[in-house]
Amino acid sequence: MGPFGLRGLYAAGAGLLMALAIFFAELRLRQFALSGLLGGAFGALLGVFTALLVTLNISRTSAPEPTKSFLEYLALIAFGYLGLVVGSRKSNAIRVDGFGKLFADRSAQKASLKLLDTSVLIDGRIGDICEAQFLDGVLVIPQFVLHELQLVADSADPLKRQRGRRGLEVLQRIQKIPQVEVRIVEDDFPQASDVDHKLIELARRTGAKIVTNDFNLNKVATVQGLSVLNVNQLANALKPVVLPGEQMRVFILREGKEANQGVAYLDDGTMVVIDGARRFINKTVDIVVTSVHQTTAGKMIFGRLDDRAEQAPPVARQAAAGAGAGRSDLPARLHETPSMDRSPRPIFPENDVD
User: What is the pTM of this model?
Assistant: First the structure.
């Protein structure tokens, strides 16, 4: 403050006032968005340029020098302030996305972010997908997802505790894959009520895709225009295509809902319903596919027994014929036990290797 003739306490007081003014200006500028700052700066430049034109006209007048100096400073402050205010108010028309794309790193542009949900980590199939290198880019795991996973792992319920620990093990497995980059982010949204809403908000701000197998999260994110990678949809898409008329060999596990039906399952979990296969429960039979139906839960295959499966061995046919001789006049239901299954009892149990 020497050039202004201030010494001692006066200089210290003036310096403190200037520091406070700069500090409050910084606090005010922190609340502005990038578009507001750009709009204010552009408006202030236009205001200063306008003030320069006004001072050029004032300098050519015959007014006294003190009057000219006063008008020049007044024009500079007034037009600069007006430009700053008007520019910041009209900043909504400025799109800052173009500036981000212009100055962003090209390698960062190529990196595709994938947000992993808690459910997909607990499911575990994401580890196999990463090992098969079907996911590119960066796998992002928010801190609030890790917190929820830890709460599940520390649950008093043994089943939930096992699921949470499996999710943590899957995460460690993914981190050890050299081809996969895993990034833990600290972004949090206290205003969001649950983890799903936090994931949606983070995906909206970062432009990342959400990887999940949660049906509700998939629907909500899709409605809001976000990209979702559903592991269940990927599994359904990778199931083998079965056409009517094809033959396959299945193991009849249980009886179906309708009369005389049997139910089997393929290796990928697809349900197979076979007409007339109730008597072959716990046996492996050959079937012919009759139709394939796509449901919300996945594919269902309907079939019937192959003609070759209906043919019994000659010894069994002769034994069945001898057992039924002389009793053809009795109703068939007398030979059935209500609590037992309706499959024919073998005459020689030691030969029934099934």
Answer: 0.48
